Amino acid sequence: MSINDTLKAISDPIRRNILELLKNGKMSAGDIAEKFDLTNATVSYHLSQLKKAGLVNEEKQKNFIYYEINLSVFEDILMWIQQLGG
Question: Nearest CA to 31 among 16, 47, 12?
C-alpha cells in the first residue's frame, strides 16, 4: 500500500460512497452492490481497488465475503498531512 494507491482509490466517488457505507460496519459485497445502480462486477472492481489500497479488509464467512473499513490507513494519511504542516 502506498499513499499514491490510497489517494487514487479515494479519488473515485463510488469508492468514497462504499467507504461511507462501511463506516457503519461490515457488509457483504452483495449488500454493497444493492446500494448502487451498478453491475456486481463493477462493484467488485471498486472493492478490489479499495482492498489494494489497504482501505478495506475482507473476511470470508462460509459462502460470503464481508468487507470492513481499515481505519489505520486513514490514520497514516492524517499523520502524513500533519507532517506537511510542519
Answer: 47
